[in-house]
Amino acid sequence: MQSYNTLPANLPVPLDDGACQHLQHAILPDIALASTQGQSVNLRKLAGWSVIYIYPMTGQPGIALPDGWDSIPGARGCTPQSCAFRDHHAELQQLSVQVFGLSTQTTAYQAEAAARLHLPFALLSDAEFAFTEALKLPTFEVSQQRLIKRITLLVLDGKIEHYMYPVFPPDQNASQVIDWLRRHV
């Protein structure tokens, strides 16, 4: 049985294709997104620092990942990335940073992952691609699904102050975010 909690060896490393250069200092769109914690969240209206880690999709136990998933640079690792943000959540709270995960999966699909992984923060659904389209986020297609490439946004008062793209390895992203925040905030 395949484990989604660890990364397989020899995953292909994603290359920076320049698809996120326009994000530096961009203002987040005025869009409310459904949340696994019940209320909608408008990321633009949040005060202070927020980290939004954007990921393609979480796998579910007993359901096969799309064919060729591990060979797509940057696709694999959504569960380890979420678990790393969970494990570093207290540290991020001490830095006065709110954390959100975001994908194009439905809130119901995300709720299963949030409960199973014991995530103390909300996952946000952009199932309609409104946030993705407004920010012109890079996407890819696999098994007739359109998914967002892995990106992490560090946002202050609704404005992107820094982005991380590509994010690799995803299980180190939370540590990378904390290092950046400690150096720049």
Keywords:
single chain; 185 residues; alpha+beta; 7-stranded mixed β-sheet; two-stranded antiparallel ribbon; 9 strands; 23% strand
Provide the gyration radius in Å.
Answer: 15 Å
Low-confidence stretches: none
**Which word captures the global form?**
globular
Task: Summarize the main sheet.
Answer: 7 strands, mixed
Q: How many separate helices?
A: 5
Q: What's the mean pLDDT score?
A: 95
Question: What is the multimeric organization of the chains shown?
Answer: single chain
DSSP strand count: 9
Share of residues in strands: 15-25%
Structural class: alpha+beta
Order of helices and strands: EEEHHEHEHEEEEH
* Spatial strand order of the main sheet: 2-1-5-4-3-8-9
Distance between the termini: 43 Å
Helix content: 10-25%
Task: Please describe what this structure looks like.
Strand 6 (139-142) and strand 7 (145-148) form a beta hairpin. The chain has helices spanning 78-87, 89-94, 107-116, 130-135, 173-184; strands spanning 32-35, 41-42, 49-54, 97-103, 122-125, 139-142, 145-148, 151-156, 159-164. The strands form 2 sheets. Strands 2-1-5-4-3-8-9 form a 7-stranded mixed β-sheet. A two-stranded antiparallel sheet has the order 6-7. Helix content is 24%, strand content 23%. The chain starts with 31 loop residues before the first strand and ends with a helix. The protein is globular, with a radius of gyration of 15 Å. The chain has 5 helices and 9 strands; from the N terminus they run βββααβαβαββββα. It is α+β, with helices and mostly antiparallel strands and 185 residues long.
